[in-house]
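haha ok so turns out i had the wrong file open the whole time. this is the CORRECT one, sorry everyone. sequence first:
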Amino acid sequence: MTVSSKRMITYPAPEGAAGNSDYTVRVRQDQGEWQPLFCYNVKVDMHDVRNASMVYFDCAGAVEVEVTKNYGDIRSVEIRPVSAGIHGVVNENRVTFTLDGPRKLSFEVNGDRFHNLHIFANPIEEDAPNPADPGVVVVQPGRHQTDELQQLVSREGSVLYFESGMHVLEQPKLHIPSGMTVYIAGGAVVAGAFVCDHVQDVTIRGRGVIYMSDFEKTTYYRTVEILFSRNVQIEGIIAIDPPHYTVLVGKSEHIKINNIKSFSTRGWSDGIDMMASSHVDVDDVFLRTSDDCIAIYGSRWDYQGDTRDVRVRNSVLWADVAHPMNVGGHGNHEKGDIVENILFENIDVLEHHEPQPYYWGCMSINCGDNNTVRNVTYRNIRVEPFELGQLIDIRVLFNPKYNPCPGYRVENILFDNIVYNGPCDNPSVVAGFDESRIVKGVMFRNVRINGRHLLHPESGNIRVGEHAYDVEFT
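then structure:
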């Protein structure tokens, strides 16, 4: 770990970490000494898996970044999200630019979004565990018997501290007891998964990487599972290529997920999925996934009940496959569930690509299984040009692949200050299913598509179908 006098921290990668040589990246503060960053290899896009790059560091205040493209010429550079307002200065094969503080960015040369460089400038950590403190169990790099780690925790401490270096969990799922903190230090790479099952007051945090590319898809391991638990926090970690979801929240409450970054390339490798859960707060995440980035459901599998009071804010969503934001698809079809009080706020959508029209929608409410979806707000959402899909999909529907019966009702949906600049060939849809399974109360307030303020559906290529009522534009 290297700490500059201006509050910048860089982390050398451990020997054996999977690197990518497409770019060379350095950072500095206040014209100080340049610090090199290790470029990790991250695979992207399930349909055509390709190798992209990723770097990370921590900072407080402005940071100058230098990126050198090691192969080929630079004809153009784009740094996204566009809302960050960052423009690079190109000098032959080198680009420099300045960050005003912590950011999550995609650096793209010559329009290539699939061999790009992801730059994660984290905030400086607060109250990180000290490995010398009592109750901190330090795990040295190496191969670990998972049951032995669990015994160490129960006997000796309340913090399990993975030091910088390569770690392999021989039995890949580590079950975390109540009251425990798992800390993955910057520069650590852990091959394994973490499970919170019927526990409370658990924290999983750090600046390190959870690396899952070597696990077969058929294991369906998730980076973190939170099951029948409460008061669980996840902060700061990076997940690379989990076989299934990055985070599963099942029948749990009071969950906080902050500043995680994730890449996935497998079937059903969603970002954060929540089922039958409440009081879930997702903040400042970057999810580049090969299925839904965020999915909010009622009942599914063993997790039965309503879902409510969910906030997803200040984040960057990149769906190489499926939806960036998806609500309402699953529930208890025999009685129907309530999915309510959902907020998506201050979000940049960098991609939406879905070959199957039935699963289109950057902002999607696909209400099935007798569910009622209500009180959903999309506020301050910026959608950049995407490859294939549609902007909005609000439907009560019957999907025979997943739903034994249609949804029941969608009501009280607000789109407030939405901006999209790009092609709008596939119409957005607002539609109910039949006379008794309707959509009611959808407000479009200050929605702008290609600079045009939408005051009626035709101006935004929005199709208001049958059994949809009280759809308004202001």
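The mean pLDDT is 97.
again sry for the mixup
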